[in-house]
Amino acid sequence: MSDIQQLAEQYIALWNETDPAARRAAIGAVFAADARYTDPLADVTGPDALDAVVGAVQAQFAGLVFTLGPVDAHHDIARFTWELGPAGGESLVVGFDVIATGEDGLIERVHGFLDKVPAGA
């Protein structure tokens, strides 16, 4: 398994982590300290802000889980699809993210896109 594949898996896992301390530790293990996360609904920098975004998504979509699609990578960037829905059920939200890593292998930047969102979300 490539490092970037493993990093994408860890990234998706932290979005599913509901224990605040474990989630915060996962953010520290995956993201650079000054990492920036941008999607259509958020533009934040740093672990505190990222943790708040993940927590807000979990509150809005309680009980749903993220799953990782195929990862396509080269150099220090990767793109992958993801889905959010009930375990084993139809996805309510579908998107893809592009990540850029630093020399240390940690995520420095995320560009997120939403392809499918529920009405009223």
Task: Describe the overall structure.
The protein has helices spanning 3-16, 20-30, 47-60, and strands at 31-39, 42-45, 65-74, 77-85, 93-101, 107-116. The radius of gyration is 13 Å and the shape is globular. The termini are far apart. The longest helix is centred in the N-terminal third of the chain and has 14 residues, at 3-16. A six-stranded mixed beta sheet has the order 2-1-6-5-4-3. It has 121 residues and is α+β, with helices and mostly antiparallel strands.
- Stretches where pLDDT is under 50 for at least 5 consecutive residues are none
Shape field: globular
Give the biggest sheet.
Answer: 6 strands, mixed
Backbone structural class = alpha+beta
Number of strands: 6
Determine the strand fraction and express it as a percent band: 35-45%
**SSE string, helices as H and strands as E:** HHEEHEEEE
Residue share in helix = 25-40%
Biggest sheet, spatial arrangement of strands: 2-1-6-5-4-3
Tally of separate helices? 3
Mean pLDDT: 95
The value of Rg in angstroms is 13 Å
Q: How far apart are the first and last residues' alpha carbons, in Å?
A: 35 Å
